[in-house]
Amino acid sequence: VFIVADRDGEASGWAGQRLALREKASLAARGVKARAVCLPAEIGGRAVKDASDALEAGWDVLTISGHCATAREVGDEFPEAAHVGVGGGTLQEAIGAAVGAAMVKNERLTADDRRGIVNKAGLEWLRRHGAFYRSVAKDEEKTGAGCALYFHADTKRLYEIASDEFQSWLAVGSGIDRIKNEFRSLHARCVDAALAMEFSRTVELSRFWEFRDGRIYLSNGGGEMARITAQGVSIVDNGTDGVLFSQAHVCEHWELLDKARGVCPLEMRIFGGISTPGNDLAPLLLLLWILALPRNLKNKPPLSLCGDVGSGKTRTARAIFEMFGMTERINKAQKGDKGEEEFAVSAGYGGITVLDNVDSGIKWLADSAANASTGGTKERRKLYSNGELFFLQSRSAVIFTSANPLYATDAGLADRLINIVFERPEGRASSDDEISAEIAANRDALLTWICHTLAAALADGAEVPKSINRRHPDWSEWCLKCGRAMGKEADAAKALERAEADKAIISVKSDTMIGSVLYRIFRELGHPWEGTAKELRELMVKGGGDGCGHHAATFYTIPANAVAPEEYDPITKERLTPKRVGDYIRGAKVSLIDVFNLRQRTSGGHVLWRFDPPGE
Hints:
By secondary structure, this protein is of the alpha/beta class. It is 43% helix and 16% strand. It has 24 helices and 22 strands. A five-stranded parallel beta sheet has the order 14-15-18-13-19, sandwiched between helices. Strand 11 and strand 12 form a beta hairpin. Helix 11 (282-291) packs across helix 18 and helix 16 packs across helix 17.
């Protein structure tokens, strides 16, 4: 849309130019691209102030349109007009003028009369300076008044009307204390305007980052965002292309630098220097997981950071929050319904959520993590007294940290995880303050590098290997494009392939009673073994030799004392029954096939299981 402004002067406060800027902002708040320009001061020797003067001077509509497409915009040509502010006049002045005008007509206004005047004047001013929205989300955070939103066109900030931030802004702007009934009435009117009035529009809120129409958007403070396309990166206003981030879901402000000044996160000690036993590609795998966050894929794998106490698992998760400039959401996992509901709410918030020190079995975790990794929903009753429902939509990427990852014993969950194993670093580790200071000093450069890497990945139209990650093929394909954008395609492919192979090993080794013992036993044995669940139990408890059972002895020779299990005390030995061993094999069959090439056959009415030694 081209907006032709009246060419007004300083004496009028650039009223025409300010009006044009106001209209442009109003259109932008609704996702409409607009240019506000003035026509030349003179056409053919005739003074020109507005469009009618231009028509009388001989220009037609096409000529005016052509001028509008290339002319300097009002904000650039008349910075004084932009400085004065869109629309002119404050909210307090608008309300005061309306009340004053009403008192001239009627000196004795009732409290209800005054509230009505304040509400009408306040709503009109807010509409001139922005737009009301209602969120289409159906989750717990966004029901009732929580769906009401206001976009301020001057600052490009989107407020939740129910939030303290908006209420404080409204109170300061209107000059009405929040404790007064007059303020409560005005605030309630704003909620009604957003939820029920015809001029309000629906919007699907973006949270921290967004992917839409082939572009990635990364929030940048309250009023800006980085728009990342195949052509490059630019900083644009919040609301551009119809993408709106609310104040509750934005990254802290950062500066986009020249591409050459970008810094890869692997140059930071906390990311590039993590200590991972026998896996030098683990830092790259972590970076690929981070680069996939702004792509905002619905189907994405949880990240499992496991290792010894003091190995840096939680600190690494905290560093990701610090780099993006997000409020940390690191929670302790709780058993029971309360823990499950709290996780569902956190997963619905967007961005990242961390369950820290998940070292004990939690029944609901596997299903909830699977739901979160696929963007699923959980249905809940709003109140026990009625049948009204709300839905918790999973939006967050999930990180688990653990020294004893029992959650990985669930084969279904293990098959979804991206696992990174930490070990305690040798020598002096960096302090928390040192790590935070390093990230803060390089944050602009880190996010600049991320944005340009994502732009290169978007521009990559070449084929990539399909389905390296069986559960999350779209995610693995995007990671490979990011690896290619970094110049590390071969290493990225190796890292992803190893992560896929490690899933089953992590699942088996996380079961400390059976799985981890089997892994050690058959690795020490070095050759295949076959037997019943009862004989396998004897092998685990008594070791090699004659204790291995007649089936094993028939097919394979096991040297005496080749295995010396030390894992079990007398009480644990009693609990390790053949039935429990058989149940484990059947429950973990998918992982055991990948690790031991597990095979099954029947002989003489007995079920025999064959295990091969685990590979490197």
